[in-house]
Each structure stands twice: as structure tokens, then as C-alpha cells.
Amino acid sequence: MTNDKPKIIAGLVIFVLIATSPVWLNRGKTKEAPTPVMAAEATAKGYCVMPKAEMKAKHMKVLDGWRNSVVRNGQRVYVNESGKQFTMSLSNTCLECHTNKAEFCDKCHVYASVNPYCWDCHVDPKEK
Amino acid sequence: MNVQYMSALIAVVVLGFLAYIGTEFLGLNSLFGIFIPYLAVCFFLVGAILKVMKWAKSPVPFRIPTTCGQQKSLDWIEQNKIDNPSTTPGVIARMFFEVLLFRSLFRNTKAGIKEGKITYEWEIFLWVGALAFHYSFLTVLVRHMRFFLEPVPGLIGIVETLDGFFQVGTPGVLLSGVVLLGAVLFLLSRRLLIPQVRYISLMADYFPLFLIIGIAGTGIYMRYFARVDVVAIKQLAMSLVTLHPAIPQNVTVSGILYVHLFLVSVLFAYFPLSKLMHMGGVFLSPTRNLANNSRMERHINPWNPDLKFHTYEAYENDFREKMIEAGLPVEKEA
Amino acid sequence: MTIPREEMLKIDNTPPRKSWMEVPPDFSKGKFCYPSQIKALEYLKMPNPREWSPTDEDWKLPPNWQEIIHKGFKERLDKYRSLKVFMDVCVRCGACADKCHFFIGTGDPKNMPVLRAELLRSIYRNDFTLAGKILGKLAGARKLTTDVIKEWFSYFYQCTECRRCSVFCPYGIDTAEITMMARELLHLLGISIHWIMDPVSNCTRTGNHLGIQPQNFKEIIEFFCDDIEEITGKRIEPSFNRKGAEILFVTPSGDAFADPGTYSFMGYLMLFEAIGLDYTLSTYASEGGNFGLFTSSDMMKKLNAKMYHEAKRLGVKYIIGGECGHMWRVINQYMDTMNGPADFLEVPKSPITGTVFENAKSTKMVHIAEFTADLIKHNKLKLDPSRNDHLKVTFHDSCNPSRAMGLLEEPRYVIKNVCNHFYDMPANTIRENTFCCGSGSGLNTEEIMELRLRGGLPRANAVKHVHETFGVNMLACVCAIDRAVLPPLMNYWVPGVSVTGLHELVGNALILDGEIERTLNLRMEDLPGAEGEGNDDDE
Questions:
Q1: Which CATH number fits domain C10-30+47-191: 1.20.1070, 1.10.1060, 3.40.50, 2.60.40?
Q2: Which among A48, B203, C11, C100 has most CB atoms closer than 10 A?
Q3: Would you give the DSSP letter of residue C438?
Q4: Residue C41 and residue C39: Cα distance in Å, rounded?
Q5: What residues contact B189, with CB distance under 8 A and at least 6 apart?
Q6: Cβ contacts (< 8 Å) between B83 and chain C: which residues?
Q7: Per-residue pLDDT for A1 more than 50?
Q8: Residue of C nearest to B62 (CA)
Q9: Residue C531: its pLDDT value, please?
Q10: CA-based nearest residue in chain C for residue B107
Q11: What are the structural domain ranges in chain B?
Q12: Model confidence over B44-91: pLDDT tens digits?
């Protein structure tokens, strides 16, 4: 019999390394969760298309709805619950107030590894 | 009705409720978010290692590969070097196909009787289902690393991009989750619908299936319907893996997340005690991981007993006269 | 068998409504093997010899039988990683279920390999796992009762250790391994079957299963030589127990005892004569087969030890082994480990072709099909395959040479060179997928004939297919148990197909130097081409 204990132990070491990889890859560092920074323009405006909590949970849904409405139906005007009208536009409406895409959008997206394909087509007017 | 699957289903539902009630109403967030996950992971690692070491402690006294092809014999006869390996590289190739592609399951056939004749059909669905299940599970697991690593390695982003290839819906539908749930449901329905398989199925077979349905179900619910706060969840996850555990303050972590996390913890803790250890066992199966070379190289049995057998001498003593009479040569004349 | 074929084919495989743990085994007549006799167990010094029958309520187990099983189980878990892993990793996917010939033929769910293993696993869980101790039946555990022992006896003697299930199992779980362990455990209580223990006891004393004594063994072989002389006009004088021969030849004693194996024995003798091989036969090591394999690893070792012991005593260079299935499992996977190293022998080298059998360089034991294939490849045999022209031949891969060795091409190569008409059975039923004869591992006993015919159904069904499609009328094999059990199987399921060993075909095609014109085959039947002019010689 070839002694297979070393092979088995090597296998177990690999298993443990993989299973614990998040621990040693982060090396015990603490990382604060990001908080999005409101741009001065946004704070000044004081309101958004929906209340903050809803925007936090549903902004992707809102933008997806806007896109469909504009591209498929040519309907560009959004009326919110309190009757305010908005032009459905990521670059013009949203980024008009949220002028700091990197600090407001990307910070959380990067942290949570969310890669919205908004920016495949749209541009941040400031980056341009 | 069958006590085996009903008890498994009830167990999983009760576990889910425990976590939901515990965190939504009783404020046991630290218990379900920190203490139990840590305990489960420790249990998983230590349990799995102990189990494998326990297997390894028993020797492999004989070389018993199941040979599934032509042996190495005369030079001009082509050996099947993978299904009947005689060398280590051959064994590695065989194990590669076995572990990563489920080679043996791929052979599956279904026997039936048609017009007085037995027929065999290639039955590939179990293989497809098993492969879909395991690889989607792996993909889901890899994808979840985005919650446990900061910064998130590019590779994980790539996996997720590929997984969301079809760019359907917002957030984009990830194939692996859907395939995982579909494959588990297929495996469950096989167990429930094929009479023979139902007959052999134990609670221990249904329990992990329901558990995984619960895990995949809550995961899908959180992503597509509840749209939970992923930043808060990552904050919790990171606190766990950086060994500075803390329940995120000022943000709400959904009770469903705790259900999800608790079911995963149960799965981890249950793993080493159960048939799920086939993950490790497949590497140690002596019918697969040995070369068929025991006529070429002596395989050593560490406990090979020294046994008294009926020697030629005893035989000749028994039959000497008859042997002499028959003209057979003998060692000792009478 | 009196049951009509159509009745036999009505196989109901709907599982019972009750849990399998509550369904008792069937011990009606014909459903069980007869237990071993007191004298065999006493001779072998095995535990608890007594008069008993499976139909009895009380099996007269030793008073501490539960303790014996528990300890025996633990001992085997510690000795065999295979057992430990196979007890733990099964996921009950059911892929093995319809791979078992006994399940296909009987429809009995406990003949599904997975459930057969669960019979043992349920006790393993109860005795050795935490989950089993806490959850009991929900974890698939149950207490060890006499009913469990009875069930083991029933179903571990409905497994032929053919390993077909292990080809399909995603973890390679080998039911043969599990059956071997279960049978070992049963032996600890004195539960065993006559058809295995009698050959084991015979083999211990006389050197062969059939209890043939040395003088009779010699007579039998000389009788074969008389027949060969009549057929070929040449007298062969094989030697027995001769020191200094180059090669020791060992084949199953079944070949010496019963047709059609005897014709293969004649084939071996003629082959060795044709090439002038310096070999000897042994009356002491006169058994290639090893029913110890079906008893316990210790018994296997003790019976197998005789081959090397005799080879050493006679001073031969190496050993050639005849056609036998389980014999070759023992030689290929156990012999060298158990009784080696055979450092007193030399690496086998064919004295005729000079071929060195590298694949046998450690055991120093060559399979006759390897040896003959090499001779044919080097054109060392004068063959007239047309003598087998009346035969349409198919080949039954025996379980052990295919799944515990991989001897697939060698016999086919030989057949194709000694016969002109060869047809393989469908791919799902040959080579590593081959189906058992239904009577292996010591189950070739008369009293369970119905079970044997059911177990042999998948094999017979495949033969029937080539019989109907190509007119196959001869089933060739390289196994002595096959030669004993396939004829009744063919008789029942596929009348019109006979059974032959590989070397009977060789013997018939082989042209010996200076032989007379052949009019008879080895069965003393007229050769078809010679019928007209040969008839007047016929008595």
C-alpha cells in the first residue's frame, strides 16, 4: 500500500484554505460600509422623485421603468405621488442634482459589486 | 403521505420560522446573525476534517478498482487508460472525470421490459440534473463572495456578469439561482415520483433538498422581490469574515436574510454528519482512486494476517499411499 | 423449471406500501440456499456448527450474537476504508437500482443494490453514528434483531458480487464489497450456505472444490487424453506434480469435472502439446477457483496460498491460470497482496514467442487468454477456424475478468482467430456492462433455480437478441461457473444456444503436428464438413 495519508492531508489543507478564503483574503481588516454622499445640489433641492427610503430600495426599478417608457412608448414625463413632474432622464434629471456620481452611485455599487449597465449607454455629463 | 419527506419538510419550515420570529420579534439578531453562523462554520470545518480523517484512519487493504475498460496487457492491445488506469496519471484523469463531470452517472441507463424483451435506454436526465445542481450551486457560492470580500475581486464580477448574461429584469436575473432551484426541484420530484427511489428515500435525503429549496427561495425572494439592502448585508457579512462581528446599526437587515443565513448555517452544520460528505468521500473511493496494477506492483495490506493453511505436506500425509499407487511423485516415501 | 417463460417475465416491480424495514424476507421453498453442514464447519473450525434451517423460527444463534455482530462490524470498519466510506457516502440517487440482474429479474426492491446496502447501513447508523442514535428510523437506522439477520441471509445470498452496480455508482460504491462484509459477519454466527462451505472444505483438504483426490484427478486427465487421442490420433502425456517444470498450470476443478468445461481442459492440453510447453499440473493446487472469496478474506487467503506454495515447492518459473471468473478477481486484486511477494518466481516470459508479460511481473501469473492471444499474434499456432464454421459465436464477459481486471480484448481476439462467425451482444450487456450469469459467488446451487433463472434473465435476453438477429448458437465464456450455469439458463430462456469455453474453440481449430484428419470435435460429435465420409467411423 502506498501511504496515502499525506495526499489526504494535502487535500484537507486545500479544502480548509478555500473554505476560509474570505477570512485570510481580508486578513482581519475592518472595512466600513460606504455611505453615499449627497451633493450640495441635491441637498438644496430637498426632494427626489420618491422618498429616500423608497429610492434606496427601488431606484433601479424606477430607472428601468423610465427606460422602457422612453424607449418603447416615447413617454418622457414622470409624475410622482405628490403630482410633481420630472423628465425621465438619468443623465439630465438624476445627475442634475446628484452631480457626484462617483461618491453617490459608484461607492455603494462597487462595494456590493453591483454593475448596472446604465453606463454602457449613458454618460455622466461631468466625466465627459 | 410519507413520514420521511413530511418530517423533512416540517423540519425546514420550523427552522425558517425560528429564524424569522427570533429576529423580527425577539431581537435575537446576534444569535442568528453572528453566533450561529460562526458555530456552523466551525462545525462544518472541524466535522468535515474529522470525518475524512476517520475514513483515512482505516487502511485500504486490497487494490479493488472497478475496471471499466480494457486492462494493460499485451503491447498490441490498446488499453483504456482512463477507465482502467494502470498508472497515477491515469488515475488522476479518471478521478478528474469522476469528480468534475460525474463520469459514472453519465453511463446511466434505464431498464424496461417491452414485448417480452428487456431493453436499456440511455437515461441522461439524472446526470444533467446532478451536474446542473452542483455547478449552479458552485456558481451561487462563488457569486456570494461579493459579500465576503472587499474589494471584490474582478473574477467574481466576471462570474456574475456571465451569470446575468441575458440581462433580463432589474436586478438582472442570475441564471445560477434559477437553475439551482430548478435542479433541486427536479431532484426532489424524482425522489417523490419514481416509486423505487421514493421507497429508498429517507428523511436524510429530503431534508437537504428542502433546506436548499429554502435557501434558494429566500435568496431569490430577497434579490428580486423584497429588494433588501445589500450594503447592510455586506456590512454584516464583512464583519463576520473580518472577525469583528457586529449587527449593522441604523439600517435594517431583513428578517428574511436571517432565515436565509440560518438555513445556510443549518446546512453547514449538518454537512459533516450526513450523506453530503460524498463531496469528500468521492475522492477516497477505492474502486475509483486506485490503479489496476496489482499484478505489476505488490499492494501492501498493513494488517495482512499470518494464517495457517493446508500445506502440501499435510496434503501428502493425507494421500501419500494413494499418490504412490497412482504413480504420482511424493516428497516422502511411505 | 416448470414455470412458463411468460409467467416468469411478469415482473412486478411496484414496491410494497409498507416501509422496507417492515417487510420480512421470503423463506418459502426455493427462495433460500441450504445452510452448510456441521461437518464442513467443524472441519474448517468455523463458529457455531449446528443443525438448522432458514425456515426455523429459532436460528440457534450464539447467546451474545448481537455483541459478536457489533464487534465484527467495528473490526471491519477499522480494517476496510471501502466499507467505512461506502457506509457513509451513498446519497440514494437510485442509479444502481436497475443495474442489478436480480432486481431486473425479480422486481424485488431489496435487490436494488442501494437497498441491499441499506440493510447493512441501517445497523451501521444505529450502532456507529450520532444521527442514527438520536433520530432512529428517521435517519434510516434500526435496531439489530434476529429479523435483520434473517434478512441479511436472504439478500446477501441474492447478490453475486458481480460489481455491475459499482460501474454506475457516482461514488463507486461496490455492493460486492458490502456483500462480502455482510457474509463475513453472518459467518461469525455460523450462518452460511452448503454450496459454498462444502467446496471450501473440500478445497482445503483435497485441493479442489469437488473433493477430487490426487489419484482420481490424474485418472480424469488421462481420460481426457484418451479422448484427445481418439480425436487427433495423438497421445498426450501431461505431467503431475513434476519438479523442475518451467510452468505450473492451474485451472478451476470444474473444468476437470463437468461438461462443457472438460472440453476446455482438453483444449488446454492440446494447446500446450502443440507448442511443446514445459509445464506441469498439480493435484494439490488443483483448483483455480476460490470459494474463500465468497466466505471471508481469511479463507480466501488460505485457499489461495496453495498456488504459490506449490509453485515454490515444484520450482517452476511462473504460473499460467486457466479460464475462471472469480479466480481471476482473486489473482488480480488479492493474491500478491495476501500471499506475495512471489520473489521465488520469475517474470513470466512466453517460451515460444519471447513476450514478457509486464502486466504480471509481480504476481507472476498469466491468464491463459493473454498467453494464447500472444501465441496467435506471433503466428505460433496452426489453426483451422473453418472447423468451427457451424458455430455462430457470441462472447459472455464474465463479471470478474471484466470489472475486476479488464480482460476484454484478449478472449475476443482468440475467438476471432479460431472461429469465422463472431457476433457481440449489445453494448449495454457486454464488457464492463456485462450481465452476470445469475449464479456467481457460490449461488450456483439447484435449490434456488428460479432465482438463478431470474437473475440470469438479462444475460439470456441479450443472447436471445443475437440468437434471433444473427442466428448465434454458441455462447463462449472464460469462467467455470458460467460453463456450469449457462447451459440450464440457455435451455430455459434461449433453447438452441450451447455453451463453450474459449479453449474448447481453440482445441477444435488447432492443428497438431502429425494429427489424423479430424472427423470429431472435442465433444465427440461429428464435424459438419466431415459428416459424409466420417460417418462410417462413428460408433
A1: 1.10.1060
A2: C100
A3: S
A4: 6
A5: none
A6: 432
A7: no
A8: C334
A9: 53
A10: C168
A11: 3-303, 304-334
A12: 999 999 999 999 999 999 999 999 999 999 999 999 999 999 999 999
